[in-house]
Amino acid sequence: MQSQAHLNVASNNWRAIGLVILCIRFVQGWIFWGGGSRRFIYDPYKLDPYAPQWMANKVQSAMPGMLFDLSPVVSFLLQHFVLLYISIIIFSLLELISGLALIFGFFTRAAALLTAFISVILMILFGWQGSTCMDEWTMAVSNLSIGLTLVLSGSMAYSIDAWLMKKRPEMINKKWFMLLGSAPWSFPTLKKVAIWFFVVTAIFTVGTYDYYRGAVFTPYHAGPVNPNVFHLSLSNAKLLPDDEIQFKMYVDAGPDAVPMYLVRIELRDENNALIEAWPGTELQKLPKQAIQNSYAYNQVRVGQYGLIAPESAEAIIRLNSSKKLNPQKEYQLQVYSVDGRRWDLDLNKRDSSDL
């Protein structure tokens, strides 16, 4: 009798926990269901490779600031369409399924752990973005902590898991259902896992915050990659035959919501004397073959006032010079954005090989 009373108290305690987390279980589920359903149901253009909303554009935008220097992995996917498309479909399905499972409380712990895992992936990819208030970082750490909390709690109230345990009481003692569903844990197990989850969450939150913004172990800063201000990396400058100039440009910082506008390129000699200039009116006339984009998604292209370069765009640019250039002399390319900022690149040798 005493043992049965103890079981009833434990069951009531877990049901109380299920009631307490009911709101966050629903919201966490809706967030992930919303992410998947937008792509599969409400905005299918996100899965259309020919549409501007195609998810590959968002994936590419993550490259400049990804954690653990994983941009080569994303670059590989972007250049292999089948793998890229499969990855996006699988990721979207995981969001959709985990979200629905949490909303209805079905295999709650498995679904919650999946949302926590997705949150870590999103932090690795997009944690550096968010030009106003660290938007992506905030979402990732919040969803991680909510997901791990739901792993601890399960859903013993208003859930399919609870209904299954009511219909088949023997499931309460099944280890697989304790792990994947919502069967109650013993207090020692709950305490041990909760402490580990707290340690992981604290390290993840404080560590990524300090990396992206400082203000913990270092002074506050805009981040290793600034999500607010565009930056242009120039490299591989070469003089080609027929006095053609070639260089690579990569927009490796800045907001992903608007593109960067390049309105003038100048060529100067070692004394900073102007040799030639390509104003916006010339840049807008560049032929398609003069811009060799590295990726098929966010691309450098000509626009009304020069070149339009969204964040994460990378391309090889070729400019025809009307001057006779001396391969023995040193030159410098100067690239100007519409807001007057300038980036310089030394150019001092002739080479007909490809980049």
Automatic annotation (TrEMBL):
Residues 214-344 form the Thiosulphate:quinone oxidoreductase small subunit DoxA domain. It comes from Legionella impletisoli. The keyword Transmembrane helix applies. Signal peptide: none annotated. Keywords: Membrane, Transmembrane, Transmembrane helix. The lineage of its organism: Bacteria, Pseudomonadati, Pseudomonadota, Gammaproteobacteria, Legionellales. GO terms for cellular component: plasma membrane. It comes from the Bacteria. The keyword Cytoplasm does not apply. The chain crosses the membrane at residues 12-33, 73-94, 106-128, 140-160, 193-212. This is Quinol oxidase. Pfam families: DoxA (PF07680), DoxD (PF04173). Residues 22-182 form the TQO small subunit DoxD domain.
